[in-house]
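Batch manifest, entry 17 of 40.
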Amino acid sequence: MKDFIFKMPTRVHFGNGVTKKLPDLCKELGGGKIFLISDPVIASTPIMTAVKAALDAGGADYELFTDTKPDPTIEMVDNTAKALADSGASIVVAVGGGSPIDLAKAVAMLQTNEGSVREYLFGGTKTVQNPSIPLIAIPTTAGTGSEMTAATVIGDMQNNIKLSVTHDYIIPKAALIDPQLHVGMPPIITASTGLDALTHAIESYVSLNAEPISDALGLHAMRLIGANLRTAVADGNNIEARSNMAVASLIASVAFMNGGLGVVHGIAQSMGGLHHTPHGIANGLLLPYAMDRNYVGNFRKFRDIAVALGIDVEGLSDRDAAYTAVEAVFDLQEDVRVPRTLKEIDIEEKDFQAIIDGTMPYRLLAVNPCKLVEKDIRGILEKAYEGR
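Output type: structure tokens
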């Protein structure tokens, strides 16, 4: 067995209604004024009502900041970092999906590290030197896993690309996982974020960086998603399905933080920078087409994926059993009614070369189970364009 290091520094508080613990948790992390980051949509929902009620009940001093948009950009991060500094707050709380949490991770880091976030992006001139101010994440979706990870994805609109700041110092100190906050999530968000979590679980499991703990987490996340995503999409009020999806997202994110990712995320990140494709939609669409290319790289592990997703592979050869994992994800896509071709999300064949050019530098392509070249990326895009 190879040597490995396993990381999970975020303290997790899980449970229905656990949001009520927010004021006490802020006090444990040093107290002081709270900078509450969310987006305008979440701010107008019962989710924010519940968060503010918890803070008010605890006598907390807080400032709500909602001047945000999906997919934070360099300019948004720098402007929000200034607003945070001007507020005098000493703790950041992020409420929302991956975008508000990624934004919060970056601005908390900039309170203790000078300069623009541009300088800290992959390939930039600076590295994170000092721990961020305390950050608590309250995810309202079950998929991105940003509340647990060491990376924050930021859009560079000058170059039409998404890049990340990656460092252990930006990992949130704590995460409050409250399935009750997920009940009002629309079906398409439930479906796309759930497939995002499945992508994390599968890519980490077949990554060349995979290790025993990330493998165990990834497989269990797949079991939970296979058994619960359809129900969570069909009946958003089913709190048991919501709870299981929240746990699946959580553990899948820990799996990929340790095991790594692969080509799906490389292509999705490129598409996000060029076409502003929502991350969960891109991952959920691309996943089975990438698996169709990758399954030959590890028949045994893809067979395990099929079993975790509920497929009976008894009597099948290793190769045939492995391919049933691809079919299982296609079936899940169809059942939860997400976009299944690039045509449906207005990606055209003329866009392929730019997407390929943005994908090839992706650092985690190196741990994809098959070594891929430009021709392979084009092949995945062509199949995703035409559909199954």
